[in-house]
Amino acid sequence: MADHLQNIDLSEYPYINRGLEGIVAFSTTKSFIDGAKGELIYSGYNIDTLAENATFEEVCFLLWNDRLPDAGELNELNSRLQAERELPEVVLNYIRNTDKNSEPMAVLRTAVSMLQDFQPADAVDTDHAIAMTAKMPTIIAAFDRVRNGLDVVAPVKKGSTAFNFLYMLNGEEPGTASERTMDLCLVLHAEHGMNASTFTCRAVCSTESEIFSAVTAAIGSLKGPLHGGANTAVMNTLLKLKDDQGEGADPVAFTLSKLEKKEKIMGFGHRVYKVLDPRATHLRKMSKSLSDETGHEYLYNWSEAMVKTMKEEKNIDPNVDFFSATVYYSLGIVPDLYTCIFAMSRISGWTAHFFEQKENNRLIRPRALYVAEKNKPWIPAEKR
Length: 384
Ligand code: ACO
Hints:
mainly alpha, binds acetyl coenzyme *A, 16 helices, three-stranded antiparallel β-sheet, about 375 residues, 2 domains
């Protein structure tokens, strides 16, 4: 579709902002991003501090309550999440019977939407947030098992979200290193300001609709390749390079040719960060050590070569999705699940923003500049 604004003198319309870049529409206690310094804070805590110390469950509590839990509160949240992991039979049947070729994110979106019907009548928003956080990993793992002709592995009522997810996906308990890697990925993806899916979640909340609709819409928003879908696209790009050229592929020539064709390279660039995304720093380290351990050094080396070329040619850095792709691949997870894993973490941030929006709501309702004709004469169908 044509970009009408390209033909318009925007100085006449100073209030127009394509992509709402830089517009502050809300106040929040959930996260702060300094795009020039590469700093990310979740409710007071630097992402580096959380990456070194926090579990995903602690981050959920932090985002929902703006403070860390004490030991008793953390135990209670862990127990509630463990108790809520099982899916209603109707949702499991949907997963069993849907098309095996469906996109996992589409299945996740539909299944999360269905969950609303099975919540107790007296459940409140925090109960719903816990239920969705607990059940999303089960939905993702169950669909992956079913589409591969395997039995669904029932969740266990013990261990972390990361532990249980890998257990349900693979049918065997993960080692401590894999569990910690997955947990760290969940910590790093939990919250990130007014990104497209969080904005979507808040926009739905602002109409006084309910939390399942807001999260369902947010999942749809995250699915796009310019947002969360980029991690799947990154891995598919690397695997295609391997298929086309083998392990001796030339990632620099590949990157340059894409740039020459003015094609975007997935996993690079960010609306807010103008320096390296601090989450990418952690994922980069994980990607290096896991690639070495699992014999995928070439993938890590290609990634680094692409990073160098993008910096030299465009001064663009990798974002969170670039190195997360090779981390998940080294954990043995197939690429089309990567965006689902992102969603399974970001549910914490989405729901935290839902609570915040609801507490101090104003309908989100921007405007668009009308650029077509007005008051055209009506011509009957047979004369058009
Ligand atoms: N590859 C090549 N060039 C790029 C890339 C990229 N990944 N990203 C930005 N650029 C270039 C654009 O071509 C443009 O160049 P030009 O000024 O010469 O035309 C310039 O950088 C600005 O790019 P925009 O797309 O206008 O920047 P915007 O802020 O709108 O987009 C976005 C940010 C969508 C993330 C973009 O960088 C992109 O498409 N990246 C690839 C997809 C991706 O990785 N998305 C995940 C983002 S992180 C997340 O959502 C979890």
